[in-house]
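Thread: assembly with ligand

MN 10:42: here's the input set. Chains plus the small molecule as SMILES. Want everything predicted jointly, not piecewise.
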Amino acid sequence: MIPQPLMSEERRVLIVDDDRDFCESLCDLLALRDYGVVFALNASDAERMIRQLPCDVVLIDQRLGSESNGVDLIPVLQSNQPGIVTIMVTAYASINTAIGALKEGAYDYLRKPLHPDDLFATLSRAFEKIALQREKEAAEAELAQRNRQLTGTNAELKAEIAKRRQLEQELRSLNAELDQRVQHRTIELRNANKELEAFTYSVAHDLRAPLRTIDSFSKILLTDYAEQLDDSGRHFLDRTRIAAIHMANIISDLHKLSRISLQHIHGETVDLSSLAKDVVEALVATGTATPEVTIHENLRTHGDRGLIRVALENLFSNARKYTSGNDTARIELGCQKQAGQRTFFVRDNGVGFDMRYAAKLFEPFERLHSDAEFEGTGIGLAIVDRIVQKHGGKVWAEGEIDAGAVFYFTLPEAP
Ligand SMILES: Nc1ncnc2c1ncn2[C@@H]1O[C@H](COP(=O)(O)OP(=O)(O)O)[C@@H](O)[C@H]1O
Ligand SMILES: [Mg+2]
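BT 11:07: finished. Tokens for the full assembly:
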């Protein structure tokens, strides 16, 4: 059986033989099997033709005329068209001729006279080899292409990794710098705090002694020298004593304020309702007027009980102070949602204040009422502000002149 050709597309064959009749009949035979065939009668024609029209397979007569050996044509054709498959055709087949042809790169050889079965079988094998070769080349080309892509991707990845490394390095050095700065600032802050502590300590202790002297000498003057003083003399001495007491209060409040900044928070669940009741009880015991106080039940928070107590003391004592002129003073501690946040409030129906200065109230020494109207040092709300801030909360106020005031504050939720 004659093997079927592998490729249905044109399979090109070049016949190189000095016998024109042989060439023409071979052409006819091959054309019957759909081969595209051309022939050349000598070596130089064959070379020229291969340059003009590349062929897949060349059948070369071993004896091309008297002067030319077909074997010599193999390297010439292969240099013109690498991969071309050559088949030697010889009338004088010997083992040496075959070896010589194969050594020069011939794919196979056929013996004259050609037998069609042998011819077609050999050609089929040759085209099969070509097809395999082409498949191999295509696969190699694809592999090379993939390799190139991979090399490209690899290079991109390497560049990306290098970039990331550099960024990481930058980040690390930035972090280190930041750490160093934080450490530096912490030391500075610690030193500043120590200085502040020393300063407030000396203010609190050293200033109190001369104040006590002023107070006690004024008292001696008032008691032991009362007869030598007239009314206005006594009045001035009274005012001296009141001023000394006021200054002592300021010093003590300032001291409290500075202590709060340095104090650490001991967090626990705090029952704000019962703490407020304690505060109010203690406060009412020190005064004459008894305001109407409403404290909502079950108000709970998480924080430092001692500090929160100080904040409540300040808010309630303000509420009482600034309602002291009312016939019926009302104070209320409650809780409500404000902008989605649980917010406590202390509300009173006292003298209120001008809303324009609402933010100022929390700064030390800022007072909206004079000493003649209401006594005070102007430190209380600054203390409240610091305590709430220390708990991560905030405090703000709303008021209207002669229509009361509300102080809002947020504190952490109890777990
Ligand atoms: N409940 C309140 N009603 C009206 N004004 C208030 C109230 N609480 C505080 N203020 C105003 O805020 C100022 C600052 O308060 P605070 O710091 O406690 O100082 P002090 O009570 O010693 O004056 C007060 O002088 C007063 O003008
Ligand atoms: Mg106050």
